[in-house]
């Protein structure tokens, strides 16, 4: 919470966006988002095609075809996409960034920055946290849009005759309360996977050496992250269905 408050203040501070800081931030955002954006989107599209077909066939066999698309939208867009995007970003980007920060902490590089009058949180932590949040939100938003399009095509085919009913169905699922919970869940997931690895690196055990640095940072980050993600998911399920 302390690190999150510091990052929030630094994010809103104009002094954090000097020319050099903007270049570093842009590089982290690009490296954390661009290499995984296409593959994650394609994976979500393939999973959507398979799950949509399974749900449609199963619903038709029970005479419940009118509820099939609602189930697809709720399961994929509301539940699986935000969670999968957050875990994907964590394993691909933020946990390795946290391990890198742990190595800098252990080697004394961060202490050297402090002796030189530089703020390690502003210089090293802020770009990684912002890049992780940007990547998580971008993957969740883009993949949700792709899933909705693919689900429509898998259900209605390449025709515009079903757009009106599909939009009405989408509106029935995404009520204002559900939309708010979806946005907050995506934001909190992105915060969790971005902040926890950095907090583990900054406030972890300072006497670790060698290869155990990366392994220990990743394990601590994973344990704390999964616990917090589970709490967020349970809270969202309570808000959506109770």
Question: How is the biggest beta sheet arranged?
Answer: none
Low-confidence stretches: 205-214
- Topology pattern, helix = H, strand = E: HHHHHHHH
Structural class label: mainly alpha
Q: How would you describe the shape?
A: elongated
User: What's the total count of β strands?
Assistant: 0
Head-to-tail CA distance between termini: 28 Å
Summarize the amount of helix as a percent range: over 70%
- How many helices? 8
Average pLDDT level: 85
β-sheet strand percentage:
under 5%
* Radius of gyration over all CA atoms, rounded: 21 Å
What does this structure look like?
By secondary structure, this protein is an all-alpha fold. Helix content is 86%, strand content 0%. It contains eight helices and no strands. It has helices at residues 2-12, 19-61, 68-107, 109-115, 120-156, 163-173, 176-203, 212-241.
Summarize this, please?
This protein is mostly helical. It is built from 8 helices and no strands.
Give the key terms.
mainly alpha; 242 residues
Write the layout of secondary structure elements.
Layout: H1 2-12, H2 19-61, H3 68-107, H4 109-115, H5 120-156, H6 163-173, H7 176-203, H8 212-241
Helix pairs in contact: 1-5, 2-3, 2-5, 3-5, 3-7, 3-8, 5-7, 7-8
